[in-house]
Amino acid sequence: MTISSTLFEAFLKCPTKCWLRANGEPASDNAYTESVEAQDGAYRARETERLLSETPKNGSMVVPPAENLKAGKWRLAIGTVVRAQVNSYVLESELHAIERRPSKGRSSLAQFIPIRFMYMNKLGGDDKLLLAFDAFVLSGMMARATSLGKIIYGDNHAVLKLKTGALAGEVRRRVEKISALLGSPSPPELILNRHCGECEFQSRCRLKAVEKDDLSLLAGMSEKERQKFHSKGIFTVTQLSYTFRPRRRPKRMRDKQEKYHHSLKALAIREKKIHIVGNPELKIEGTPVYLDVEGLPDRGFYYLIGLRVGNDESAVQHNLWADTVEDEVKIWREFLGILETVEKPVLIHYGSYETTFLRRMIQQYGAPEDESVAAKAIGLAINLLSFIFAKVYFPCLGNGLKEIAGYLGFRWSDSAATGLRTVVWRQEWQATKAFVAKQALLNYNAEDCQALEVVTRALLEIGRGPTEEGPSSPGHVVNVANQKREHPYGFKRNTFAFPELDAVNKAAYWDYQRERVYVKSNQHLKRSLVRATRSTKLLSPDKIIECGRARSCPKCNSSHFFGHGRASKTVIDLRFMHHGLKRWIVQYRFHRYKCQTCGATFYPQGRCWVRSPFGPELMAYALYLNIELRLPQTLVTRNLNKLFGFRLPVTTTTNAIKERAANMYLATYEALVKRLCSGELLHVDETKVSIRGNEGFVWVFANMKAVAYIYSETREGDFVRTMLKDFKGVLVSDFYAAYDAIQCPQQKCLVHLIRDLNDDVLKRPYDEEFRQLAQAFAFLLKPMIASVDRHGLKSRFLKKHLVSVERFYRKMSKTSLQSDTAVKFKERLEKNRDKLFTFLSYDNIPWNNNNAEHAVKAFAALRRVIGGVTTEKGVREYLVLLSLCETCRYMGLDYLDFLRSGEKDIQAFASVQRGRRRWVGVTATSPSPSPRPKYAT
Q: Half-sphere exposure (CA, 13 Å, Cβ side) for 393?
């Protein structure tokens, strides 16, 4: 098997092209491809002649055999074909030229430098890899390293010197992929890409893609997105069209750019209707000026400016032509002059090419005067593509001007004309000055301006809601916001065509049959329903408290007042016994008074009853069940009603208790967060939470003694950077990139790293290179963990391992890796070198993030209880109470005791508990213990 430089170049563009060329697939005509090949050949011939003229006659060889390269004292070799055997395949390349540099001494060898000629004025990554391939083959044939190469390119004979040794590994990987590709009897998966317009197999591939209805037909879909759809079993555009579901846009996202939906594009194609998102309304207040520019991208030269001023029959077309680069400034001045003559011009173009043109012309030749008509028009230029993107979905495969205008009915006089074809016409005109080529360019540019007018008119009609029939009429335009939102995975009511069927269906509901049908024939069910609806007597109070008489009027301080009726307040509570709970009802009785002096009505100033209908012990027990034991709110209330005979509303009671408690402990929570963000150690992690169909995130901040949960609408790094802008301790986290921007010492979780490492080793059992690297890393970690187990997290015992870390990285940097997985893991280790072993240099810094992950598990358990039906306010209340619960657990405190204590400061509560434990220890040995401190309830 022979892999030539031609096949290597084809593979860089497209694997399918490489396979087709290798198997002799007949190619179709492509004017651009033929033009590129002709210009490459002409440029190579000119540059070869130039180099030969600059080289002494006895110092050059033309088309020498490869075997003769080592012999003689030549300086330049032209057109040499070199071959090298690598494994089971042969590499072959025809080198444009080779420069030989003599050795500098007896101990050194002559240096061979491959040279490649390219007529383009701009180079890309593929051009550099082609030169690296030449050097790779030359190195294999000469059995010596070729670490330097040259590319001579462009009109000015520019020279790029490239260190080809740095790209040798990449070339080897590409060669191995080509070998595997050519060894297959069938072509690779067909994927259309941006190179298709330049390829001689374009017609063949597009025909097969249309037959398959392949996803790559949709322009703009990345390889990652396509693979994601493939993993879900979606391989065709039609299949993709059935996956679109209209969603209600959250309020917080209404001012942000709507994301592009490939599924909606596929739906528009299937239904052959325009689909719009939101209310796209294009406003043109003035005279439209349609702009289209033609140029040579590699030279940065704009030679034709097309302007169409006005609409329909009254429109005037201007074509500003530049023969040479020097004429570019002239047509720019003419363009500005035309804008000045138009009343309130509104500049309209399609795509970023014209945006770049306006910016570069202003930079090179100067901007128009401030506040001039031209300056205002350029500053307010409308890019129709940015207006269409993610807002208007036309039923065509891409968002190009030709596709959209073609759908709207516009036709070009030359159906084969494209942007690449204009490059061919311009080069033809430069070579021959043929009038036909210039006229083709002028016609094409003018028709682009007309097409732009057609698209603009259609968008204006869509915004206004037109009445006439046509591609943009109401029958052909669908507003996604008006589509019915389907919920395929939930229970839903059926919609019946006849009301009689609806009545029959309603009669089958469980409640209806139980209460209206079965009760008529089942006496046991009838009695149970009667018992369930029978009213019960009011709960009698266990304690009655008579409130004292008021002393004076709170408004005027008068002592002349009289009783103005009696009132009472009943508080439902629990009483904790030594081995159980009992219901406890307290009734407060008091008078209402009226002042004889000012007429004010008031209650006793020393109000002894609480505002809430729930006592503190009941609130503590309900929160204990809901937050620590993770019982749903409805079950908590049913539990209280069942066990204690309450008649509390099932749907609102526990939620009201939660809301009241969250407000009461809010200051405690804020102090907890502040203390965490100013400490010496902080563990951070994050997880998702669903809030009525919308996605939010909960961040976990923790250390060894405290935990705080904080809600955020997004996972963006701005939130955590703001929270930790003054943090100076050590941050322990996973490998989420948002943490890297925080300016403090960091320790990345090694557990995350070794899990990823282990998964990759199991997935690639035959990748020996990666396996050895992984094993070396495991050998590095094992003694460190042994030291931690023996001495704890003390830096004086762990610093000795820094020498091993330095030795490991030094050895790894000298190792040349070929495996993609090994290279990626090596890059990951080098990127995070300063953050993987921070625990070796600091005291009491863990090497993993299990502290935060343990706290995440607590929230995950509560999240299952919440079930996504709460609001953002409800989630924040949950997080306040859960933070206190987990902090108590981390400090070895009982959450229920803390809630019952009435204490707001967890540290103060902990000190009371420690004092109590010390007192209990004294009583075990002291004959005369001091009185037991009273515990607040």
A: 29
Report pLDDT digits (tens) over 148-160. Answer: 999 999 988 999 9
pLDDT at 475: 56
Question: HSE of 813 in the Cβ direction (CA atoms, 13 Å)?
Answer: 9
**701 phi and psi angles, rounded to 5 deg:** -110, 130
Q: How far is CA 461 from the centre of its chain?
A: 35
Q: What are phi and psi of 585, to 5 degrees?
A: -110, 125
Decide if 687 contacts 700 (C-beta within 8 A): yes
| Chain segment 46-79, per-residue pLDDT in tens | 999 998 888 887 777 776 676 667 666 778 888 8
**Are the C-beta atoms of residues 237 and 221 closer than 8 Å to each other?**
no
- Is 701 in a helix, a strand, or coil? strand
For residue 321, count other CB atoms closer than 10 A to its CB. 17
The mean pLDDT of the chain is 86
Neighbouring-strand partners of residue 60? 76
Mean pLDDT highest for which of 69-78, 506-515, 546-555, 663-672? Answer: 663-672
Q: Is 182 helix (H, G, I), strand (E, B) or coil?
A: helix
Taking the CA atoms of 646, 651, 657 and 660 in sequence, report the sign of the dihedral they define.
negative
Whole-number Å distance between alpha carbons of 228 and 211: 22
Q: Which of 322, 386, 306 is nearest to 352 (CA)?
A: 386
Among candidate residues 625, 688, 699, 711, the one with its CA nearest the CA of residue 661: 625
Q: Give the amino acid at 826.
A: K
CB 753 within 8 A of CB 704: no
Per-residue CA distances from 344 to 286, 373, 376, 456, 718 (Å): 5, 7, 9, 17, 42
3 state DSSP class of 234 = coil
Structure token digits, residue 751 = 């557990």
Q: 602 near 595, Cβ under 8 Å? A: yes
Distance in angstroms (rounded) separating the CA atoms of residues 840 and 797: 8
Contact between 156 and 122 under an 8 Å Cβ cutoff? The reply is: no
Strands lying side by side in the sheet with 287-296: 316-321, 301-309, 287-296, 345-349, 382-383
* Chain centroid offset of residue 860 CA: 23
* The two three-digit tokens of residue 752, written as one number: 């995350």
Six-digit token string for 608: 């002894």
Give me 495's structure tokens. 């919609």
Name which of 230-239, 557-566, 648-657 the model is least confident about: 557-566
Give residue 514's pLDDT band: very low, low, confident or very high (50, 70, 90).
low
Cβ proximity of 588 and 571 under 8 Å: yes
User: pLDDT: is 693 or 53 the higher one?
Assistant: 53
Among candidate residues 320, 312, 20, the one with its CA nearest the CA of residue 182: 20
Q: 757: number of CA atoms within 13 Å, CB side?
A: 22
- Can you list the domains of the chain with their CATH numbers? 2-182 (3.90.320), 194-276 (no CATH), 287-480 (3.30.420), 502-534 (no CATH), 547-611 (no CATH), 750-840 (no CATH)
Q: In three state form, how does the secondary structure of 796-837 look?
A: HHHHHHHHHHHHHHHHHHCCCCCCHHHHHHHHHHHHCHHHHC
C-beta neighbour count of 462 within 10 angstroms? 23
Instruction: Quote the CA–CA distance of 229 and 250 in Å, as a whole number.
Output: 25
Query: Whole-angstrom Cα distance, residue 387 to residue 383?
Result: 7
Question: Quick one: which of 181, 202, 184, 204 has its CA closest to 193?
Answer: 202
290 burial level (CB within 10 Å; 0-12, 13-18, 19+): buried
Cβ neighbours, 10 Å, residue 422: 22
Q: State how far the Cα of 166 lies from the Cα of 164, in Å rounded to an integer.
A: 5
Task: Give the list of residues 6+ apart from residue 821 with CB closer than 8 angstroms, or none.
Answer: 760, 764, 767, 770
Eight-state DSSP code of residue 315: -
- pLDDT attached to residue 365: 92
* Exposed/middle/buried for residue 642 (C-beta within 10 Å: 0-12, 13-18, 19+): exposed
